[in-house]
Structure to design on (633 residues):
């Protein structure tokens, strides 16, 4: 007796529907994508009972005649492609011809459509995949689709739906995603006949993000200037350093107008931010990538969420470079903030900036003044095990006869009444920055130090607070990383070489990047099909399990872009070391030292965050202060 039999047509349709129709939100995705492909300028979506009760999508697109209206309900009937070669260059959101028949097979379905300029339209009623009625209708130009009683003929599948509120939130999120991806198209969303949002057509991307995500988030976004390289264009908006989320919910990427998820792009976003992002956090991005459709395969996932790139390294490099340039441009905005001269300030002579000391392999005889005395011994001891020693130019010392600008308050006797004491200087100091030419120059007002940790300054926009510990961490980190990149990673030979067996996938990657691993300080040599001999390690690594260390290094370097630093395995060590030796809270800094701290911070590549991704400075505008004091609504 034969074991294999053909499935009935309605069962096969339900199986196919299970791949496309997961929940009401996936129905909205498929129908809205069809509306966008039809050239719609306005799309209206309304739902009841989370979309499982009823769901309606109305557009003003091209519409269809009667023949097309009937044919679109057949499986694999589509106007998007004609031959197999078209799959190699897909330029539309839909292309398989599965969405409408799949949705119609698990619902009570109504399609009403009229071509532009046609006198009458066509109405088709489908019940669980069976066409019941075909007739003329007088609907407006475009297409209207009603989906009622979703999964009515699949009760087991219907039980997997969540609460109405949860399903409604998924529909709203999906519709917001499509609205952000197509800001020129107007969108209206109604839930239980209540207008959730109504977005006009012809908006800019920033206006669409502001309307959907709020003005507060929109103010914290940086525009990514259109960056083109290797026929790849990158544009959009990304969050400033310090703006992050614990999930990837607001990590939105569009490829040729399609919202996608891709591991390569996730690594690229992380790489672009690098130390500007805290560990375990994800950036906020609204990124648009345009590239040749022939260079990407979108036919690898039933819901078309995942894609595969022909050259993932090139797309990764483009995204990393676009994000890095955008973050660096924000550094210029911070510089302009600090170089603004207050209206009531008076100029003072610039604070002298000593020349940088030459690079050295040992600590200079004169320990940097910015490093507290209690840390100097530990700093020499800890860095003696590293390949390079930090060399930081000493800060200018105040004349011995002049008192410090901000004297640390003495502790009052126990039980005594604490009173606010005025500063030694009756007026806040107006200091002239000696910034590098690239950053310009100017003046700012140094007001004092709050809590022996936060440097207070005034600029044209309001109040600026600088965390002296985080600022010094960033300065020391970039100095040490720069030295390691310039002078290389010293290695030490192992007394007894170690043989390591890796997986075939890791073996292939190692063979392709032996030169990269060598520059990172690892001495590796092929010793068999999937075996390697390790005979050298960086001097600062003391692994208990070299095999596990090698796997971790491979994983880290896989995430790094080709043009990025090849010394990532040393960066974490540098960040931990400078954290111990940067100035701490309660470390008293004199006025010239504070000025030098700000100058060196603004000269860094990423001055607005420490190596761990925490912010180094915060701006509080006059508007925010006026609101807090009730002077402004």
């Amino acid at each position: 007796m034969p074991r294999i039999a053909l499935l009935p047509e309605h069962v096969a349709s339900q199986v196919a529907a299970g791949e496309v129709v997961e929940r009401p939100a996936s129905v909205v995705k498929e129908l809205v994508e069809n509306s966008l492909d039809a050239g719609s300028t306005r799309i209206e979506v309304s739902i009841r009972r989370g979309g499982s009760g009823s769901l309606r999508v109305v557009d003003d697109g091209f519409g269809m005649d009667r023949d097309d209206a009937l044919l679109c309900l057949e499986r694999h009937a589509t106007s998007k492609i004609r031959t197999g070669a078209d799959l190699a260059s897909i330029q539309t959101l839909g292309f398989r011809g599965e969405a409408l028949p799949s949705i119609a097979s698990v619902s009570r379905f109504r399609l009403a459509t009229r071509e532009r300029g046609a006198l009458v339209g066509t109405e088709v009623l489908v019940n669980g995949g069976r066409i019941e009625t075909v007739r003329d209708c007088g609907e407006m130009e475009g297409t209207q689709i009603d989906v009622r009683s979703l999964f009515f003929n699949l009760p087991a599948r219907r039980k997997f739906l969540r609460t109405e509120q949860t399903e409604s939130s998924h529909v709203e999120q999906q519709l917001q995603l499509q609205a952000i991806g197509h800001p020129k198209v107007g969108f209206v969303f109604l839930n239980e006949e209540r207008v959730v949002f109504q977005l006009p057509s012809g908006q800019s991307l920033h206006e669409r993000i502001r309307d959907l995500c709020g003005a507060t988030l929109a103010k914290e976004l940086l525009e990514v200037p259109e960056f083109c390289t290797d026929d790849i264009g990158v544009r959009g908006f990304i969050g400033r350093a310090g703006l992050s989320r614990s999930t990837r919910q607001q990590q939105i990427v569009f490829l040729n107008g399609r919202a996608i998820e891709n591991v390569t792009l996730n690594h690229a976003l992380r790489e672009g931010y690098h130390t500007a992002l805290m560990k375990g956090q994800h950036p906020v991005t609204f990124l648009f990538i345009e590239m040749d459709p022939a260079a990407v395969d979108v036919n690898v996932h039933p819901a078309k969420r995942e894609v595969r790139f022909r050259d993932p390294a090139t797309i990764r490099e483009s995204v990393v470079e676009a994000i890095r340039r955008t973050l660096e441009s924000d550094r210029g905005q911070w510089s302009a903030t600090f170089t603004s001269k207050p209206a009531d300030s008076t100029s003072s002579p610039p604070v002298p900036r000593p020349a940088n000391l030459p690079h050295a392999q040992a600590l200079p005889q004169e320990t940097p003044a910015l490093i507290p005395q209690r840390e100097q011994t530990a700093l020499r001891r800890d860095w003696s095990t590293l390949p390079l020693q930090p060399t930081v130019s000493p800060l200018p010392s105040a004349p011995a006869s002049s008192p410090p600008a901000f004297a640390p308050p003495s502790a009052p006797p126990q039980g005594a009444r604490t009173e606010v004491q005025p500063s030694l200087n009756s007026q806040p100091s107006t200091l002239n920055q000696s910034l590098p030419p690239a950053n310009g120059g100017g003046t700012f007002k140094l007001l004092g130090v709050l809590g022996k940790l936060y440097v207070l300054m005034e600029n044209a926009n309001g109040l600026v607070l600088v965390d002296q510990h985080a600022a010094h961490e960033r300065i020391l980190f970039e100095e040490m990383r720069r030295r390691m990149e310039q002078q290389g990673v010293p290695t030490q030979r192992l007394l007894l070489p170690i043989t390591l067996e890796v997986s075939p996938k890791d073996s292939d990657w190692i063979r392709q990047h032996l030169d990269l691993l060598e520059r990172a300080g690892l001495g590796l040599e092929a010793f068999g099909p999937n075996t390697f001999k390790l005979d050298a390690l960086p001097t600062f690594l003391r692994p208990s399990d070299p095999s596990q260390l090698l796997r971790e290094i491979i994983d880290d370097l896989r995430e790094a872009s080709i043009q990025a630093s090849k010394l990532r395995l040393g960066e974490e060590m540098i960040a931990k070391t400078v954290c111990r030796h940067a100035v701490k809270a309660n470390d008293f800094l004199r006025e010239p030292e504070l000025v030098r701290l700000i100058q060196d911070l603004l000269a860094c590549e990423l001055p607005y965050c420490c190596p761990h991704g925490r912010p180094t400075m915060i701006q509080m505008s006059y508007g925010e202060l006026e609101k807090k004091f009730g002077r402004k609504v």
Q: What stands out?
A: Confidence is low (pLDDT under 50) at residues 336-442. The radius of gyration is 31 Å. The domain at 339-400+425-488+567-633 is CATH 3.30.1540.20 (formyl-coa transferase, domain 3).
